[in-house]
């Protein structure tokens, strides 16, 4: 299914000498327009004026009967580990790898455009997402042709699918990106769709691969949503990853 065009919100300071871009993906059943309020919060607070926002739209998925970046697993919005799997092995069988990698490639094409048309260096590009969008953002940072080369990856209220595939690549390469990419992971302690244990599991994996490049936070009482505290922490992290001046 085709994608509706992304919503593009230009930087409030179009004359910045150090422009940057964030590509932020919505979750299952949502659409790009659902995240324009987040951008408005940044602009109202006069934060990151050199940052351009690209909010892509997932295609309509016939299995999910909603906009989705990939087909969700049966009876669950999240991939849960099977208890029969031996330690050290992961079962990706139920993951919609084809759909996921198609979405990753779509995001890569958006990155291509920023590099080719916007003349942006990769370290000035961040990819992020919420829930299913988080899953695709993480896979973009770990498995795509831009793995380890982006400025940062943001994962909100999400999870890491294809863990077996990712783990195998990490084992083969020894290291994915040499810690060039910075990571911001956030989750609510009361999330009923993606339980905290799922977040803890993938966070520990990512910390094992990327070390001190990972910043992770759990927000007490937050469900499958965002809060003001999370938005403030995200803003502070983006200011560090995409500074307005050379360091």
Give your account of this protein's structure.
The chain has 247 residues and is α/β, with parallel strands linked by helices. The chain is built from six helices and nine strands; from the N terminus they run ββαβββαβαβαβαβα. The chain has helices at residues 36-44, 97-116, 132-143, 163-173, 196-210, 228-241; strands spanning 7-9, 20-25, 51-55, 60-61, 66-67, 125-130, 152-156, 182-188, 214-219. The strands form two sheets. A seven-stranded mixed sheet has the order 1-3-2-6-7-8-9, with helices on both faces. Strands 4-5 form a two-stranded antiparallel ribbon. Strand 6, helix 3 and strand 7 (152-156) form a beta-alpha-beta unit. Helix 2 (97-116) crosses helix 3. Residues 82-89 have low confidence and may be disordered.
Features:
247 residues; alpha/beta; 6 helices; seven-stranded mixed beta sheet; two-stranded antiparallel ribbon
What topology does this entry show?
Blueprint: E1 7-9, E2 20-25, H1 36-44, E3 51-55, E4 60-61, E5 66-67, H2 97-116, E6 125-130, H3 132-143, E7 152-156, H4 163-173, E8 182-188, H5 196-210, E9 214-219, H6 228-241
Parallel strand pairs: 2-3, 2-6, 6-7, 7-8, 8-9
Antiparallel strand pairs: 1-3, 4-5
Helix pairs in contact: 2-3
